[in-house]
Amino acid sequence: GIKLPRGWKIFGRKRESETKSNGHVYQYFRIDWQFKAPDGKAYKSLKKALDVVKHNTRHEKWEVLKPKSKQGPLTSPKKMMESVMSSNSEYLTLKKQAEQELDLELEKDVYSLSGIR
After folding, report:
1. Of residues 70, 91, 95, the one with CA closest to residue 81
2. 109 vs 39, which has greater pLDDT?
3. Closest by alpha carbon to 75, among 101, 98, 55, 93?
């Protein structure tokens, strides 16, 4: 099936009609669909609604910043990942990774650990 993002509403109006062909009368019904966007705009065709959805997708930007260090050279990211993966074979979450980097930074900064400023 086709899925529309959250907030979109779909309305259908059923119409009954009849047509004549070669002396026979055929009855049929049709459904007129309407697709309503969260901003209130209504579209009659699914194709147009999907085009609008496709062009209005929100892209999240992620930015990875290096920790600011005032002392000595940093260990390379490759070595840090090897040490983390060797000690722990499970996958890291961003929160765990940030905490581990903070712990490494605090271990180097003796004054921060002891509370002396």
Report:
1. 91
2. 39
3. 101
Nearest to 14 by CA among 41, 32, 36, 39: 32
Return the structure tokens found at 23. 């002396």
Tens of pLDDT, residues 47-100: 999 898 888 766 556 667 777 766 555 556 666 666 655 555 556 677 777 788
Burial class (CB in 10 A: 0-12, 13-18, 19+), 97: middle
Cβ count near 82 (within 10 Å)? 12
Six token digits for residue 92:
């890291």
The confidence band for 108, taking pLDDT boundaries of 50, 70 and 90, is: low
Residue 26, H or E segment: strand 24-36
Tell me the three state secondary structure of residue 102: helix
